[in-house]
Structure formats: C-alpha cells, structure tokens
Amino acid sequence: MYFTRLIFILSCLFFIGCSSSSDDNDQPAQVEGIEISGTAEAPSGAVASYEQPSIFRVASQFFITPVAAALTGLEPIEGALVELIRVDNNGEQVGDVLATTTTSITGDYNLTLPTGVDLSGDLITRITGRNDAQLRAQVVEASVNITPVSEFILQNFVENRTDLKVIQPGAVVTLKRKVEEFDLVASGAVDIAAVLAQLEQELGDYIDNEIAIIGEEPASADAVQALAGGYRSVLFDLKFEDEDDGTDGILGSDLALAEFTFSAEESGELGITFLSDEGLYASIFGNDSNFFTYVEAFFSDESESFPSASLSDSGIVSIAFGFEEDIYPTNTPPKGERRPAGVFILQKALDDNYFVNTNGSAAVIYGLTENDALDPSNKLGDSVDREFELFVQKPSNLSASDLDGDYGRVYFSIENNQDENLLEIETEVSVISFENEKLSAGAAVTKVLTKLAGDVSYEEVNAPAESGVPYEVSADGDFESLDGDPIDGFVGKDGKLFVIAGNEGTNEVGAQQSLTMALKLPTETPSLAGKTFRFMLLALELGDASMSLVSNSFNTLFTMNSESSGVLNGTGIFPFKESNEAFPNCDGLNCQIDVSREPIVDLAANISVGDDKKVTITIDDDGDQFTLTGWMNETSSFGIFNTSFGEAGGDMSELGIATLVEIK
C-alpha cells in the first residue's frame, strides 16, 4: 500500500491531474505573476554542501527543462532551497524572504514572483550552503540561472558601487549573455571560491569595464568631431606568467610609443586607427635568486582600424575587441595563448584631449600540436598583465619657445641585470624648466626599491640639479634630442604636457625602461575642493619571496571634500605571486599567479599643496601609508603622480605611477 500510494502522489505532482475527495473550489485562487525558472549549478565539490529536501519537493520539479550553463565543469545542485529576496547596494538582504522553491534532482527550479514584484537588478534568487556560502542571481529576465557566473556578476556590480535599483534589467541581461559567450571551463575547481577566483583572473577587467559604460549616454557629434586628429601614446605594461608545474615564472615589461589617428565616423562613432609603434620588451624568468633576462626590441607599421569605438557624454572611449589566439612555435617549449573577448576603455581629461587607461587582461597558455596549432588539452600555465597608457593629441606647429616655463615631472623606471640577479624600481618627482632651447632640472629625491638575489631593500637617494641642457623638438611635437643624444618622446598639442620614454637593453644581459611625464605648472595654487577624479594606477610591489602588480578598477574614484581632505572608493586589483600550500617552496618569480580584489570603501585622504605647486595625497591604513606625490594642470582637471606604499615613516615596498582625471 505504501508503494502504491507513493506512486500515486508522485504522479499527481508530475502531471498535475489528480484530485482528492475535497472540493477544488475550496482551494485558494492563484494570483498570476511573472514565472521565472532556471538551473542551479556549482563545482562538483560544493554540490554536497547544499541541504537535500524530501523526495516530494524534488519530484515536484522533475520535468522542468534544463537550461545550458554558462560555465562548463559544473554539476546540478539537487534539492536546494531557492529564496527570492531584495538586496541593497552592498549585496545585503533587505526585508523578508519574498518566496521560496526547491531545485529538482537535475538542478532546475521555477518560481512565481509575488504580486507587485517585478524584474529588477536588486531582486535576487539565492541558494545558501554550509558555512553560509552563497550563490545568487539577479532576477532581470524570466530565465535565471544560479551559478558562480551569476554570483560573480552580482559581486562586481556591488564592488563597483552600482545602484542596483536603477540599473536597467536589459543591461544586466546583455552583460550576462556576453559572459556566457566565453564558454569558460571551471578547470577542476572544487569549491565556489576557487571558481570565482578563476573568473576574476580571466574576466575581472572585462566585467569592470562593461559595468563602467552601462547607462552611458553617447557624446554629441560635435564632441566626437572635436577629437579628430593625430595622436601619440605611451604604454607601460607589466606582465606575470606562471607554469602549472611551478618550475618557472616570468615578470615582463613593455614600454612602447605609438601613433594613431582619431576621426569622426558617419555613424556618429569615433574611428581610431593604429599607425605604428616601437618599443622594448624585457623580462626575467626563473626564480628570484637566479633568473635570466630576455630582451627584444619591436617595431610595427601595419595599420589597424577600430571603427566601432564609442565616445560617451562623460568622456569614456570604449573599444570592443574579439577573442584572440597567439601562437609562438619558436618558444621553448612551443606555446600558444588564448584571451577572451573584452572591451578596452579610456577616460578623456575634462579640459584637454588627453586619454588614460589602466586596462588589464589575462590569458591561458597551452602547448601546441605537431601542426603548431594550440592544444586545449595541454594547459601549461597562465598570464596576467596590467597596463598604463596615455594618449595625447599631436600639435601641428610647435616651436621650442612653446615649452618655455616650469613643468612638474614624474619618473618611473624598471631595471634588471642577469649577472647580479638584480631587479630595481625607481621613482622621482622634480621640476624641469625650459628657456631658450635649454632645460634645467631641479634637485630631487630618488626612491629606489631593489630586489638583489631575492633580498629586498629600499633607500632614498639625493639627485643633484642640472642646468643648461640643450634639446630639440619638431613642429609636430616629436622630441628629437636631449644634450645632443637622440631620445624618444613627444609633446602634446598645447605644449602643456610631454612624455619621454627610455629603452635600453641587451638580451641575456639586462635592460632599463623609464617613463617621464611632465605637466606645465599652474600659475596659481591648484584647487581640488568639490572635484571628483578617476584614479588610475600602475605599481609593482616587491617582497623577499613575493611580488605583486598593483592597480585598480576603472570605477575607482577620488572625491575631494575640501582643499585638504578627500575619500577614495573603488576596488584594488592585485595579481600576485607568493608561496601557498600547493607550491610552498617557490620564492616569488616562479610562484603561481593569483588575483586579489579588495574593496576600497571611504578611505580618508589628506591633501596638501606646497609653495612649488607640488600636490601630496596620503592615505593611512593600519600603520601603512599610501602616498601620491605629483602635479596638477592649470585647471586642476588632470594630474600626474608617483606613488609609494609601505610602513608609515619606514621603508617602502611598492612604487608606481598614477593619474587623476576629473570627471563630470
């Protein structure tokens, strides 16, 4: 009897066609609402962490059609409680649970939204496992899959301080589908945290950039036309690579100068054409105490157009790019790299045709087949890079006298030496004066962070003043020589900003790459009160057995409350190499890559401006201090800085460069 009764109950649940002796008219009326459904999936090791309900609740949803996952390598979450809730902009639950249901044995679920509840970015479906591990998804369409991808997207909206109530559901849907197109693999991850870390490494920059342009209004045709002309750029790119077996690692750096043209397209979009670039790639590989140096100069004049670039009303330029695959058959061993599609974004300075980006990307490294094709079954390692790039419009009739006056200069360099196993970072802030085709440099303090055979040290060295150094500059802003020696650099259209790049190196010996940026100093003391700036950073941190790239998300903002105080909000991004349980004996360079994202919430900043117009911004953080030292332009809308981080009053462990770009 029990078995017969069970089959009867299940049949009723499956086919919704049975009745009992009670009158159907006595049942409460069903209120129509939006039906949502989807699939819940997690890494195989996490599936068992979810509570299993009775067979009746499982069976009630047995025939829901499964929905394809956006991340392969996952398994259905069987019999888990699905809760419908509201959250605030911090991702925390607001109010009571609105509705519940349960996933079937295939991980599927369906749920009817209560009366008066509509699709929204702050409406969430949630599954909670042991130790309060959560998987959540925004209810912005009728099909809502609950996976690490949906959790990853929600977390990034929160980290980017997005107003979840205001964001358009269609924008969330579009972003989710773009992520699904990557068809990522969970790479054997056994828990949700591991999958989220993998997603961050491979898609963190992509998500940040997509979120930054959601809701942006297109710029006017006049604004696009005003950008037309020739441009030069300088790129400083830092890169980590690792090998899955932990035997080797790479720290690489690119320093390059490039030329572009910007044009107004009939479509109303901004056309960008790459014309040429030249520079130097340098890397060290091996381990901290015994590494080797690889150096290669490069040049390209194979033009490439990006006709679909978009300019927003707030000065954001976005350029979508597709999936990339690079093959290196002459490497030892031969290898290939795959990079997912993404979006490249730049911020325009408010008052000038300067553009800055601090984008980054990640790639998976594979071996090659006998035919020199990429072999997805032979994963060798990973790579991740962070970059700083500045675009400046070219002048057409510049003369040496246009440079006369004082400029605030910031300097950043990286040097390696194979024989000494030396890696060294230097920064310097100083004033440069131009007069009668000669320049003078004021005295400065050079900050030097050195890693010598694995041991890290820091010192500050006094750099003497120089005067009477001749220079040559062309009418189109090309720096041609300094003290009689040819140099690589350029001057902006208005003569108020210039860049000099230094590239020297010999393969298997060593290299030094340096970047100088300088702004013409204002005549009055810079006023920062009431302004909001996009903060864009690139730095390198060195430890005795570790190293980190240091950057931040595009939506990291400095808000200046007064002339002496401000707050920083956003997200810090830190690809790093250090020992862990899997590789306890690595020493930094040959460690595996990991990526940490740390929310920056209302960090208080102190601001001071010296008589020489030098701007210093300091942030104290649990005994450590982060400092920006540099210069603002005449309108206080654009600034260049060196950065340092370390124990307050003690040695620095990190040096870098940064810009502040005022936004509307």
Question: Can you describe what's shown?
Answer:
- The chain is mainly beta and about 675 residues long.
- It has two domains: about 35-215, Sandwich (Immunoglobulin-like), CATH 2.60.40.1120; about 220-660, no CATH class.
- Helix content is about 10%, strand content about 55%.
- The strands form seven sheets. Strands 33, 34, 35, 36, 37, 38, 39, 40 and 41 form a nine-stranded antiparallel β-sheet that branches. An eight-stranded antiparallel beta barrel has the order 11-12-13-15-16-19-20-22.
- A hairpin with a 5-residue loop joins strand 19 and strand 20 (about 355).
- Helix 4 (about 150-160) crosses helix 6.
- The radius of gyration is 28 Å and the shape is globular.
- Mean pLDDT is about 85; it is low at about 1-30 and about 50-70.
Keyphrases for this structure?
664 residues, mainly beta, Immunoglobulin-like, nine-stranded antiparallel beta sheet, 7 helices, globular
Helix content: 10-25%
Unreliable segments (pLDDT under 50, ≥5 consecutive)?
1-31, 48-70
Biggest beta sheet attributes: 9 strands, antiparallel
Radius of gyration: 28 Å
Shape: globular
Number of strands: 41
When the domains are counted, the total is 2
How much strand content do the residues show?
Answer: over 45%
Give the termini distance in whole angstroms. 74 Å
* Class computed from helices, strands and strand pairing: mainly beta
**Mean of residue pLDDT?**
86
Helices, by number, come to 7
